[in-house]
Amino acid sequence: MTITRLDHISVVVDDLASATAFFAALGMTVEGEMRVEGPWVDRVNAIDDIQIDIVMMRTPDGEGRLELTKFHNPDLVAVEPAIAPPNAPGLRSVMFTVDSVVDAVARLRALGAELIGEVVQYEDMYRLCYMRGPAGIIVALAEELA
């Protein structure tokens, strides 16, 4: 048996509206919103009495999806360090190809996102950068130059 596709990536956030605005500024659109609760979600997560809201977002090409999840119950669990550095184990980043890194950085900075390092050019192929996105995740932006 093999994988047939990557369905989506899920990010737990504390501010669903701000996270939705962040990814909308990159050009993603809201595919759907819903409240999720009940025995099935408790069992799959091994946590009792889950109550969450989710916003499913889709990339402009229709292929990529991102699930933004806001827990109402139980409370979020703090992790240390809260804002992990780029060399921390675990999910490193979510990368998006954009028309213009400079424009994307400006739009995201207006929403409070922070540039981690610098905007750099890799050979004649890409302009790249890392930004700190919702819930402290690293959002990588790549502009194809060729």
CATH topology of the largest domain: 2,3-Dihydroxybiphenyl 1,2-Dioxygenase, domain 1
CA radius of gyration is 16 Å
Structural class designation: alpha+beta
Question: Please, how many helices?
Answer: 3
Distance between the termini: 37 Å
Word description of this protein:
The protein has 146 residues and is α+β, with helices and mostly antiparallel strands. It has two domains: 65 residues, 2,3-Dihydroxybiphenyl 1,2-Dioxygenase, domain 1; 51 residues, 2,3-Dihydroxybiphenyl 1,2-Dioxygenase, domain 1 (Roll). The protein is 18% helix and 36% strand. It has three helices and nine strands. The strands form two sheets. Strands 5, 6, 7, 8 and 9 form a five-stranded mixed β-sheet that branches. The protein starts with 8 loop residues before the first strand and ends with a strand. The mean pLDDT is 93.
Topology overview:
Elements: E1 9-12, H1 16-25, E2 29-37, H2 39-45, E3 51-58, E4 65-73, E5 94-97, H3 101-109, E6 114-115, E7 120-122, E8 126-132, E9 138-144
Parallel strand pairs: 1-4, 5-9
Antiparallel strand pairs: 2-3, 3-4, 6-8, 7-8, 8-9
At a glance:
This protein is an alpha+beta fold. It is built from three helices and nine strands; from the N terminus they run βαβαβββαββββ. It folds into two domains: 9-73, 2,3-Dihydroxybiphenyl 1,2-Dioxygenase, domain 1 (Roll); 94-144, 2,3-Dihydroxybiphenyl 1,2-Dioxygenase, domain 1, CATH 3.10.180.10.
